[in-house]
Amino acid sequence: MLAAGATSIAALDVAVATCRACPRLVAWREHVALEARRASFRHETYWGRAVPGLGPDDARVLVVGLAPAAHGANRTGRMFTGDRSGDVLFAALHRAGFASQPTSVHAGDGLTLTDLRITAPVHCAPPDNAPTPQERANCSPYLARELELLAPTVRVAMVLGGFGWVALLRTLTELGWTVPRPRPKFGHGATTTVTHPDGRSLTLVGSYHVSQQNTFTGRLTPAMLDEVLTQVRRLAGLPVGSPAALADADDPR
């Protein structure tokens, strides 16, 4: 498996981008890239491959989503970039001091993340946003290896939606982490802490997914997302405040 041989986050990202383990997902992502471009993107060359995680290799916070969007990350090659869900997420990450800018349009737009990395249990765009259990299982080693490589620094996982919550808990269990019983249920603002035999702990914080289904209906509002991100910063031992105040706090002068 490509994931097992990755000795760094950079190597893992390369392994993800070259993965062809799921025939249905490979066929769909390439079909979208070559034949099903929306009219507004017809002049763009789609990424059309599995989408690696985004963010530094010393992140304290790991955001776990679901899977790339067909005309978002599958087009741009960057997690949550180029679609309405990403518009909501990156604006909130900027307000919380994790992102250098409030928008994420394409891979060369200058965006950087600080103290936070974004990943997903499934790295290819699935038809109808619905990966199969086998596809999730095929992709699970990437999430497992990512957690292992981030082990020295990661302390909080912000999980967007119930699919990511279940997938992350399953992967943590497979890695030998102790998960509370009964298994914690997903909910917006729900928290649970899992422990590793070596003494490490990881706190999971749930948030409704930033999908249009949630943001357009008001199920998830910017204020609700801001509240969860403030909680995440506190749990990760990071300062809380406005982007300007956080920038001043990081300035050594």
TrEMBL record:
The keyword Transmembrane helix does not apply. SUPFAM superfamilies: Uracil-DNA glycosylase-like. It holds the Pfam family UDG. Transmembrane segments: none annotated. PANTHER family: TYPE-5 URACIL-DNA GLYCOSYLASE. Belongs to the uracil-DNA glycosylase (UDG) superfamily. Type 5 (UDGb) family. It comes from the Bacteria. Keywords: 4Fe-4S, DNA damage, DNA repair, Hydrolase, Iron, Iron-sulfur, Metal-binding. One of its GO terms (molecular function) is 4 iron, 4 sulfur cluster binding. This is Type-5 uracil-DNA glycosylase. One of its GO terms (biological process) is base-excision repair. Residues 52-229 form the Uracil-DNA glycosylase-like domain. InterPro entries: UDG_Type-4/5, UdgB-like, Uracil-DNA_glycosylase-like, Uracil-DNA_glycosylase-like_sf. The keyword Phosphoprotein does not apply.
